[in-house]
Amino acid sequence: MNLEDITTVKSILSQPQKIVIIPHKNPDGDAIGSCLALRGFLMAKGFKAAIISPNDFPKFLKWMPGCGAILNYEKENAQSKKLLEEATVVFTLDFNHLSRTGQLETPLTEKEADFIMIDHHQQPADYAKVTYSDVSMSSTCEMVYNFIEFLGDVDLITKDIATNLYTGIMTDTGSFKYRSTSSRTHRVVAHLIDCGAQNMEIHQQVFDANSPSRLHLLGVALSNMIILPEYKTAYITLSQQELDDNNFKKGDTEGFVNYGLTLEGIIFAVIFIENREEGIIKISFRSIGDFSVNQFARTHFNGGGHDNAAGGRSELDMEKTIEKFNEVLKTYKSDLNA
Ligand code: 5GP
Ligand code: MN
Fold this sequence. Notes:
This protein is an alpha/beta fold. The protein is built from 13 helices and twelve strands. The chain has two domains: 3-207, Alpha-Beta Complex (inorganic pyrophosphatase (n-terminal core)), CATH 3.90.1640; 212-336, Diaminopimelate Epimerase, Chain A, domain 1, CATH 3.10.310.
């Protein structure tokens, strides 16, 4: 954030405001962590702030401090609409385009208020009064930490705020191992531990809370994995039937896509997950090194994200989607073998 933006934010927050905070649809640890931390911070500054999520969030995050206050726009629609109508300031966190908010896209596009974007995805849209966008950042949570620091308020970071920020940084960096993890990230995380974040407990809450059905679903996913050594690619499919058979709950497939990358020589991993209710195949892409899955998802599967982690969707059925993927893959053979 530049000085001008910091001054603008300070001026906005020097007056009474009604604030809502919005994460992207299907929010992950970074989206939920950043929203909860920002809300905690704004409440410590004396503001009323609400979080409105476009839809539900995964069970493995439902222990996070303050998460009971998150409104689900699908389920608590009337209350959410009212808060959004009354809002004078709207923070949008962990996404770069209003289309990432699903059903909230139209009301947000029409909404007149001071928008503040905090995000680390590529190609941010230009809808906010203040756009704090930095693609080099490990996570939106690291940026919320910076945001608090820019305002000179690091002293206001409580144990709960620290826990939420730690969780988002941990999940978005794959436990501090992805390329965007910097020495600064570690310094921030160290300070969060000093502020009371219980690092071991947080890891356990997020990663050691498997249900037997989730592990069975992982077994199905791994046995469905197709490995294409000539493209250094591995992909997984999961049909709606396979999800249903294994008592699928939101968040259960989190991390499955990464298994492909643990294979020696594989640099591109994909998972295709059928969602019959939405009539789509939801796709996650991951890569190691210079192969940009953001570009791949954007160009072919109506998506985007980061260079090494992106998502997208297909409106074809599973078989046709896989056919299309295999066709497209052929045109990337030299890029994948560079
Ligand atoms: P995931 O595969 O874990 O859902 O998402 C990986 C990254 O890609 C995240 O940063 C996420 O925000 C982004 N992403 C996931 N799905 C989509 C999508 O449909 N469109 C865009 N633009 N980004 C996505
Ligand atoms: Mn993120």
